[in-house]
Design a protein that fits this description.
This protein is an all-alpha fold. It contains 6 helices and no strands.
Length: 221
């Protein structure tokens, strides 16, 4: 996505008037610019649809995971009522894992939401640039008939080269891979220690609550 993002910024910031002034064939330059903008718009609309679907999916997963996480607390109390402290601890560990996963999903959903906004903004800017290029193309003086007939062979060759160049750019875009950063081991260990301490305190509270909830013995008649 880095290459396409850079190219889109270049297209959005391009000065059409300056490009026309420096081009040997302004009409050809504007047509190529319009084509490249339209191809970029197709890519962006596809990315926007994917980003919207991803955002909705991540939100749904986050809500479902958060709901599942809270179910483990009741399960831990049930295990403690039956004097299964080991089982209760496993239930609380599962709860914390689910809570952490839900938070990661929320973070990913927020990132997807930002991506949706950025893509929508890029589409709006490119649409404006395409409109400008089309208007400039219409304002150019028309060539006399037959002027471009002699250059037909050259035009075909240039169009072929332009097509190859666009295909190469697309191949570059699909070859990118994103590396996931590895968590810092020290931070992970400290976080695990803090979690264990919090769970031990919660287990102790459950244990005390279970002990105090014993049914009262009946008095002898």
């Amino acid at each position: 996505m880095i290459h396409i993002a850079v190219r889109i910024r270049e297209l959005v910031s391009s000065n059409v008037d300056s490009m026309i002034g420096s081009a040997g064939d302004p009409a050809k330059m504007l047509k190529l610019l319009r084509t490249e903008i339209e191809e970029s718009l197709i890519t962006l609309h596809g990315d926007l649809s994917k980003a919207k679907r991803q955002h909705e999916r991540l939100l749904a997963q986050a809500e479902a995971t958060a709901a599942r996480a809270e179910e483990w607390t009741a399960k831990a109390r049930t295990a403690m009522d039956h004097k299964r402290e080991d089982l209760a601890r496993s239930a609380l560990l599962a709860r914390e894992d689910e809570r952490a996963q839900a938070e990661r999903l929320r973070d990913a959903a927020r990132d997807a939401s930002e991506t949706v906004k950025e893509l929508a903004d890029a589409i709006e800017r490119l649409e404006a640039k395409r409109t400008e290029a089309i208007a400039k193309l219409k304002d150019l003086p028309r060539e006399p008939q037959g002027a471009g007939a002699a250059a037909t062979g050259d035009s075909k060759a240039e169009r072929h080269l332009d097509r190859i160049e666009r295909m190469e750019r697309r191949v570059d875009l699909t070859s990118e891979a994103r590396a996931e950063p590895a968590p810092a081991s020290v931070d992970a260990e400290i976080a695990a220690l803090r979690r264990d301490a919090a769970l031990a305190a919660e287990l102790a509270a459950m244990k005390a609550q279970a002990g105090s909830a014993k049914p009262a013995t009946r008095k002898a008649k």
